[in-house]
Fold:
Amino acid sequence: DLVFPSMSYRTGPYAAGGIPFADGYADYFTMLNARDGGIGGVMTSVPECETAYNTEKGVECYESLKGGGGLVYQPLSTGITYQLIPKTTVDDIPMHTMGYGRTSAKNGEVFTHTFNYPANYWDGASGAINYLLAENGGDLNGKKISLVYHNSAYGKEPIRTLTDLAAKHGFEFTEVPVDHPGQEQKSQWLQIRRDKPDYVIMYGWGVMNQVAIQEAVNIRFPMENFIGVWWSGSENDVLAAGAGANGYKALTFHGVGKDFPVFADIQTHVVDAGKAAGAGDQIGTVLYNRGLYAAMLAAEAAKTAQEIHGVAQINASQMRDGMAALEITEEKMAALGLPNFGPSFKVSCDNHGGDGMVGVTQWDATAKTWTLISDFAETDKELIDGLIAEDSAAYAAENNITPECK
Amino acid sequence: MKDNAESYVTTDGRTIGPVVMEMKNITLRFGGVEAIKDISFDIREGEIRAIIGPNGAGKSSMLNVISGFYVPQEGEVWYKGARRPPMKPYEVAQQGIARTFQNIALFEGMSVLDNVMTGRLTHMKTGMLSQMIWRGAAEREEVANREVAERIIDFLEIQAIRKTPVARLPYGLKKRVELARALAAEPSILLLDEPMAGMNVEEKEDMSRFILDVNDEFGTTIALIEHDMGVVMDLSDRVVVMDYGKKIGDGTPHEVRNNQAVIDAYLGVAHDEEDAT
Amino acid sequence: MNEQLAFTIEVFANGLMAGVLYALVALGFVLIYKASGIFNYAQGVMALFAAMTLVGIQNGQVPFAHLINAMFGLDVHKFGWTVHSFVAILLTVAVMVVLAWAVQRFVFRHLVGQEPIILFMATIGLAYFLEGVADLMWGSELKALDVCAAPGACLPQGMNMWLEGTTYEALGYGFFIDNLDIVASIIAAILVVGLVMFAQYTKQGRAMRAVADDHQAALSVGVSLNFIWILVWSLAGFVALVAGIMWGAKSGVQFSLSLIALKALPVLMLGGFTSIPGAIVGGLIIGVGEKLFEFLIGAPFLGGATENWFAYMLALLFLVFRPQGLFGEKIIERV
Amino acid sequence: MLDAQPAQVQVENLLEVNNIEVIYNSVILVLKGVSLNVPKGGITALLGGNGAGKTTTLKAISGLLASERGEVTKGTIKYRGQSIAAQDPAETVKKGVVQVMEGRHCFEHLTIEENLMTGAYTRRDGKGAVAADLEMVYNYFPRLRERRKSQAGYTSGGEQQMCAVGRALMSRPETILLDEPSMGLAPQLVEQIFNIVKEINEKEGVTFLLAEQNTNVALRFAHYGYILESGRVVMDGPAKDLRENQDVKEFYLGMSDEGRKSFRDVRSYRRRKRWLS
Amino acid sequence: MFYREAGDFSTTYPQDQQTFPIKFDRYRYYVVLFIAIFVVPFLLNDYWVNSLLLPFLIYAIAALGLNILVGYCGQVSLGTGGFMAVGAYSCYKFMTGVDIWWGGELLFRLPEFNIFFSVIMGGVMTALVGVLFGLPSLRIKGFYLAVATLAAQFFLVWLFNRVSWFYNYSASGQISAPERDLFGILITGPSTTPWAAYLFCLFFTIICALIARNLTRGASGRKWMAIRDMDIAAEIIGVNPLRAKLTAFMVSSFFIGISGALFFSVYLGAVEVGEAFGIQKSFLVLFMVIIGGLGSIFGSFAGAAFLVLLPVVLKVVGVDWLGWPTDIVAHLQLVIVGLLIIVFLIAEPHGIAQLWRVAKEKLRLWPFPH
Ligand SMILES: Nc1ncnc2c1ncn2[C@@H]1O[C@H](COP(=O)(O)OP(=O)(O)OP(=O)(O)O)[C@@H](O)[C@H]1O
Ligand SMILES: Nc1ncnc2c1ncn2[C@@H]1O[C@H](COP(=O)(O)OP(=O)(O)OP(=O)(O)O)[C@@H](O)[C@H]1O
Ligand SMILES: [Mg+2]
Ligand SMILES: [Mg+2]
Structure:
């Protein structure tokens, strides 16, 4: 078997986000097994382990799944990622942190076993600014932009990028932290009501998203000017606020909705066969699609690895090579039944982050759907690469790593 | 009355020393309630001093004043010839004043032995560091104090329950353990608040014997609150009588018993026949 | 009107409103503490459980569907009907009463006379249990909560336009107050008045306080601990439901709802564990205090997100001067 | 003086305890087969030294044992012929049996008056009757009237004892189990409390089962007595007979042939004579 | 019959005072120690160490510490998570060299401490912070104090999150333990061998247990217990309440700090304060203490074992053996843990330790019940 462990969190404070992702991840592999007979003729399996988004449980999961010969880990939590970066390196197992985790892991010379393609937090920040630039005819001078963020390592990620971008584009940037869990955000939103920023960017997670959007509705902050990162852009986050949330925007690095051929396959091979993961009611939601996308990328990387090494039953080390040589093109996606589902990108041994293309989606509260309103667009590479080089160099120095392409 | 500074010998041959503790014009109020009203009396070294009075007269409050738990609004406490400055209760205890409580105040979560050992705490001085290491100073001190505690346990005949958690003990034994704990401190003044409540005659006899022996052997000064007139009259050298916070009598048991005010307020008439020997 | 002043007043007013919401949660704690000396760790989870049950009933969800499906290979999810909010609330209250009975019957009846910390621990066990049951019963995904008297007449949310309009005309600055908060305040006021009357003027109220003081003695005069506890836990369950609705309307119903308990603790501490009015006053002080601090000092000088600890620090400060909280019963220290 | 009541030969037994065994914490065996009968309208005394098992017996009857992690493992307890063993204490109170617990157990935070009012919790006979009884209790214990607005936690030991007894009276019970009612009370009050007991017993026909250490008074007021030692009944009989019994005299009444001895003269600790075990 | 103490007589007080006065217990204790030190290290793999043993040992230290405070001294604290964070961050700073700045200039930088002393310093700094937050305990009691300690919890977490000096200005706000060795054997970092990490933690656990035992059987322990059982009476018989409480806070925080330091450096290797040392941690350790048994050294171990092992066992049974979906198992796990806590409490309110004691009492009498 090709083992793709799923470190899911279907309980705890973030269960609402964890469930669809885990379902999507599992369903895709179930479909591959049923439709294609696995990958390259080898069946896949997806052992699941519940982390409850808790670091210690995550470590326990990693250790217990390790025995099963997992090919690639998706820790799904920044905390767990930090745990596993050194561990996976030593164990020679690759890890994929898609749109979360340690941003500077993009530097494959330092972080040999961690991949964060197709986009990372800093791409998110830059993508949002780029989008706003486009909206404002390329000029943000004198505008005010606030960042509402989860007061944790994750939420603080974009600050440095945004500060630099503010200097570059001449907008005024303010930070508004929200403490975990973020059930009560009156002060923060009164502050925003007073400051009257032109745009608000949000890096939130869990209940903080719902409350923030609700409070934004309450103070009548125009939803079109409110952009969340991809972890603040699922149905969960907007549904509670009802009609008021109409027009809210969120970044993304993959397609939304069910309008892709692959969903027909999932319907026939998975749902109708009664093999859907979880309750089976999440198909087509943003986070489900993200799980599916992660699974697709993992499967493609496995295929690449099979090609490189010429064996069907690859191991984790070979999987890493596959990931490092992964290339996603329009044609490939179309062939998979996912045309234009995500940006096309190419991973290399020194670039583990892909090309950092980011799109924007918008919420339609009446139809209760997200729609992609911009293409997957470039981010400010120059600036981000500088930051990444700096941060990864610090990590390398701290841990006596000589950056090299392995 | 003899002069304060003078010692004298009682009829049964015990020496009563000079005054060690003197309460001067103590007044204690709780909000509107005046629990003690301008009371003065003294305690001599080596004597057994009883405090009696009806319920709510302020006896326990007086003991609490002595042990520093209540701070009187007015009045002074003189100890060993000097005015005692305001003090925390534990400082009073460290001066050698130990006591028992009316509503048993044992440490319910600990064994009898441990309770008695807490009485020794004022004597234990090793630092935390050597306690951590245990071997050496701490152990030596522990053993030395344990010996004292065991002596007291023997003395009060509670060997059999040494390791029993006090919560399981019946009321009477708890009182005895409390006495043991107070004695373990080897105090110079021992304050007893109704030590014999809830005991039958036989047990009271035992208890009396203990009290007398402590007084005899160690020369411990004892202040005693008790409602059993037989005990009070037999044991005490002098008696203070309180009523509604006021002192209504002070003197030898014989004097007090024949004091009309005391009879009216406290003893009642019905009692005489029973107590008559 | 001076802008800074206007903002400050606005923050103040919103602090009061937030305080009321905290107080709603704190009330449940107070009830149980007052009646049994139990510090009910499970109060937050009860709010979650109540809210989940309410939504589940409203939407006609099949309880334990996921478990049933997994065990018997079925595929049931919904009954296919929806229940009117009002009926659903009544049914939920009934569920909470059953819960109260079960708690009493299977837990606290066996723990009469134990120390407070042990009872506290039992409520922790209860919290785990309830959380698990709630998830198994209704699933752990996010659910939107709407309480509507009639279609279109739901719990109001969002800025009160009338207030904004009038203040704008009168003062030149339109104040922001959330409609939901206004509703919550009215409900809280009704609850508090009712509960105070109950505790102060009925014999059950007196018995409740007696039980908190001494289980055994209460038993010995014939107070039925069982009855008192069922009564009080039911009341607390009801209060939890109200809190669950108010908070759930804002953030949707999911696990984090149980964490609102953490916002209630400083309120409880400041108002006094045993005082019903204390919960409200404490809530107001904490609400205003933390909001003003964040607004005036926290955000400008300390980098923000100070509310969580500041609420506790503020309460701590009060406690140093009044160890039993503002309205709590004086701790009796006697020998 | 009281045992002179006409021979109660054919009285109905209200409470029958038959051969009960009680175990605490499922390991400590405390009562080893205790049987007793409490006749309707009588005053029955339960005597015995510290730790004999009096409190345990009373708690077994009232059902309070469960909350102490104790358990009646053998035997039956019947009230009016119905088994009340292991019953919810509140039920037992409804049946008319109320216990006054040893060591007062007042509700500290409630005022004296509220304490008394909780006593009336189970009553259904209207506000007026309760108010009248409150007045009655205040008349029995004027001290309580003075302190009615104080929190019970802040009253003196004796005041709390009065409060506990008063509280039991407030429930208008048919049977009262009194555990050491005289503990910590001033002598006239002891007498008074027993007089009240007698009065209520005679006027209202309330039945009493009282555990007492003050054997002397108890046997004067009771009709029948049981003597308990280490968990067994070692002797029982009409109070008069017990008072005349040599052993009882010596061990429980503190009288030898020459009459009552001074506590000071007890020179050695006496080994208790045991009837059994 | 199975469990005998007949024939065991103490003839001296030290003998009577020792940790295991009964021979049977003493031998069993030696055997356990022997196995733990000389046998277990040879049988280890990553899974056992990282998922079970390290958390068990480290939580046991924290539980010991909290037990001193709650179980022995009666001061309920919910600040454990915050105090562990102090331990972890102090350890980190000392590991990487404490830098002192003044007015934007680096005044000096301490040399990097050896990992052993870094952990100790974690304990020491936490002890100081603990004393500071223990001060209100003189006036505030019971659950009020418990809630008040949450102030420490929230404040400390906020502080470590906010002040970047604590995490050496790293971009992510996480701290990660660099590789450090002791006598050339790696203790921290990903390449550490399981047995080295295990023995390192075991050493601290044993030392802490010994210290806890020595303190609690002597004068300090009695002072604490006296304060716990009745603080007023304790004061009147001569215990200085402030000192007793503060020493309890100090010792307790010292242990908790050590455990926090180990938790970060040896066990996880990288932590983020809010996640690793949040309020849940405070509750978790408190649960361990109460379930294990308040006022019992053995109880701290039992409680830690219970709460570390139980979820894993349930998971293994549910997911691996029965093959149920993970979320149902996770939910059932909550239900079962909750039920077990309640059942335990009803069976024996004083925790596993007391259950064990009663069991021994019964065994001693077996086969005759009384
Ligand atoms: N802390 C306090 N606050 C308020 N009132 C108090 C306090 N302590 C004692 N009192 C009151 O002071 C009076 C004297 O109480 P105290 O306990 O000294 O009486 P006592 O002489 O010991 O009586 P007893 O024989 O019943 O024990 C009582 O009326 C009591 O209610
Ligand atoms: N909760 C308990 N757990 C264990 N043993 C207990 C418990 N309560 C009482 N005992 C034991 O039961 C025996 C009888 O106690 P009980 O309290 O009934 O005595 P008593 O006759 O009322 O004594 P006293 O006159 O001193 O009140 C004692 O040996 C005591 O140690
Ligand atoms: Mg008194
Ligand atoms: Mg008794």
Residues B 30, 33, 35, 53, 55-61, 102; C 334; D 147, 150, 154-159, 184 surround adenosine-5'-triphosphate (ligand 1) (CB under 6 Å). Residues 190 and 282 of chain A are 35 Å apart (CA to CA). Chain A touches chain C through 41 residues (CB under 8 Å). Chain A has a mean pLDDT of 90.
